[in-house]
Design a protein that fits this description.
- By secondary structure, the chain is mainly α.
- A hairpin with a 5-residue loop joins strand 4 and strand 5.
- Helix 1 packs antiparallel against helix 13.
- The N terminus and C terminus are likely disordered.
């Protein structure tokens, strides 16, 4: 008996846009005492200037406060730094009993002695090598054996590097195996898909249902391989209806696995609805013979033709807008199978183009290419241990070969007559090796004695008190550093806010000047100071007399600007004058502290 859950989760739903609240003007235009010729543009410009002035004052106050806070924080940091240094000194002095001081000196002397012994050994070895090379330079056998020894040494170095690489790969493979498909996503760099399966904050309520890599879980590699046949079938059905193939997406595969595991555990067998994707879900108690597309596609296609029943699953499968997909299969302990197919309509998401963390590192591929990569990964897991065993055997053989070549060379060198210099150098090398071993033993003993001396004073009340004081000072210093960093940020933000407020104030005054100039050009009877032929001049109508209708003709000989054929320069002069007046009215001259 088979069944399918109706109603696919589809993209495109969005909460209705909330209505914008009515905007309230924080500084309504002033209506009393306003010139009857003042335009609304001027009124608005003056209100903007008022607001800009208030914003500058507030920003300056905030900046002053930020500077005060930073000064206090810097002083506190300086004090905390000095206090911590003094407590550190006090703690070290409390620990420095005669026994500890003597033990520390012994360790320092032993370290220096061992370093000198190592240096002497290196020099002795170099001298022996140089003299042996000189004495064997004219001996073909020595030359050949030396070359073979050097080649064997290089081969061992290469073998050791290979073993280290294979060891790291085998260790990683062992860890990845336990993570199932999450290990696959991690290995290929699909960090978004990995987070979906391993991070509760990314997978939401599905997290508790995910059992990484366990048998029957959607995240087991065996179940992932089962999805190949279903992904192929989905694309075959799409192609039969003229729709393009869907590519397989890492993130959609992980989402399908998380959703399938949740649906398996949910008694209602519903959609998890955690991720904003399209999804089909189905379940059955007959996993061996069950085909989800019988209900998703075949039955619902008939429903669509008849105009009855649900069709959401069918619509998802044949939706031409979808470009990528994922699929998952999971089984319960009672052998009930649950399947989930996920869909998304978007441009292909890649590790380069997406900033959403759930899509970080996502790669899309055709079904065949995707599962070729899966098989390559499984081969990597299966071969990692055998590759390590092979590398270890090769390293052992290389080491044996080097030992053999070195012994052959040593035998050949011993068979020839050696110079007194080489004999002495070999004796010095043997002595240097003995001296280094002795120096190492002395250092080990000195370090053990220091540990005993330090343990003896660790419980002394004075040392405990000094340690507690040092820990408290360290805590205060960390807090002071954090506060100092916060005040630095606050100061930078306050300075930026003031800069923005000053810029807005400048723009507000420029806007006011433009509004005043435009008002003067529109309102009859408006005067332009010092301009002949207007109501503000002795020429034309009588002083203070209201003018109606057409303005009297001006005498071009009285107006030095008239010859230009335009009043633009006069308007500019008037604008500058009015702007200066406005700036004086609103206190632009006051000094701005910064």
């Amino acid at each position: 008996m088979t069944s399918a859950v109706a109603g696919a989760t589809l993209l495109g739903c969005a909460a209705p846009a909330m209505a914008e609240p009515a905007q309230t003007n924080p500084d309504p235009p002033r209506t009393q005492g306003v010139d009857r010729h003042k335009t609304q543009r001027v009124i608005d410009a003056e209100a903007r200037v008022d607001r800009a002035e208030i914003a500058v004052a507030q920003a300056q106050t905030s900046l002053d406060t930020a500077r005060t806070n930073k000064s206090s924080a810097d002083a506190a940091l300086t004090q905390a730094t000095q206090d911590q240094a003094s407590k550190q000194t006090a703690y070290e002095e409390a620990q420095s009993t005669p026994a500890v001081t003597s033990a520390k000196n012994n360790v320092a002397n032993a370290v220096a002695a061992r370093k000198n012994a190592q240096k002497n050994l290196d020099q002795a070895r170099q001298k022996v090598t140089r003299l042996e090379g000189q004495e064997g330079a004219n001996n073909p056998t020595i030359v050949r054996l030396t070359r073979e020894r050097d080649q064997a040494r290089a081969a061992l170095t290469t073998a050791e590097a290979t073993t280290a690489q294979k060891q790291a790969a085998a260790t990683e493979a062992d860890q990845l195996k336990t993570q199932g498909t999450a290990g696959y996503f991690k290995h290929k760099g699909a960090t978004g898909a990995f987070k979906i399966l391993t991070d509760a904050g990314s997978s939401g309520k599905t997290f508790q249902s995910i059992h990484l890599g366990q048998s029957g879980d959607a995240t087991s590699m065996d179940k992932m391989l089962e999805t190949l046949r279903w992904l192929n079938k989905a694309n075959q059905l799409r192609q039969s209806e003229g729709k393009p193939e869907l590519k397989v997406s890492d993130s959609l595969m992980a989402m399908a696995q998380a959703d399938a595991d949740w649906t398996r555990d949910d008694r209602l067998h519903g959609h998890a609805a955690v991720f904003p994707i399209g999804e089909n879900v189905a379940y059955s108690a007959n996993p061996a013979t069950y085909d989800p597309f019988n209900s998703w596609y075949t039955e619902e296609k008939r429903n669509k033709a008849n105009g009855t029943g649900q069709t959401g699953h069918y619509d998802n499968i044949v939706n031409a807008a979808y470009t990528i997909t994922g699929f998952a299969v999971t089984c319960t302990s009672t052998n009930v199978v649950t399947m989930s197919q996920t869909f998304l309509f978007s441009e292909p998401l890649t590790r380069v183009t997406s900033s959403n963390p759930l899509w970080a590192g996502n790669q899309n591929a055709t079904v065949s290419d995707y599962f070729q990569d899966v098989n390559n990964y499984l081969a990597y897991l299966n071969n990692a241990q055998s590759d390590l065993t092979t590398a270890q055997a090769a390293e052992a053989a290389a080491r044996t070969n080097l030992t053999t070549r070195q012994n052959d060379l040593n035998t050949a060198l011993a068979s020839i007559t050696t110079s007194p210099s080489l004999t002495a150098a070999r004796a010095a090398l043997a002595q240097a090796q003995t001296d280094l071993a002795t120096a190492q033993t002395t250092l080990n003993n000195a370090q053990a004695a220091l540990a005993v001396a330090q343990a003896a004073v660790a419980s002394d009340p004075g040392v405990v008190a000094a340690l507690n004081a040092l820990n408290a000072a360290n805590t205060r210093l960390a807090s002071a550093r954090q506060t100092s960093a916060q005040t630095n940020t606050a100061l930078a933000n306050a300075q930026a806010a003031l800069n923005n407020a000053v810029t807005e104030r400048t723009n507000a005054y420029q806007n006011l000047a433009q509004a005043i100039a435009a008002s003067n050009s529109l309102v009859p009877g408006t005067t332009i100071p010092g301009r002949p032929g207007t109501s503000g001049s002795a020429a034309g109508s009588g002083a203070g007399q209201k003018q109606e209708g057409k303005a009297p003709e001006k005498n071009r000989g009285d107006d030095p600007l008239a010859s230009t054929g335009s009043d633009s320069m006069a308007a500019i002069a008037a604008c500058v004058a009015l702007c200066a007046a406005a700036m004086g009215t609103f206190g632009i001259r006051r000094r701005l502290r910064s």
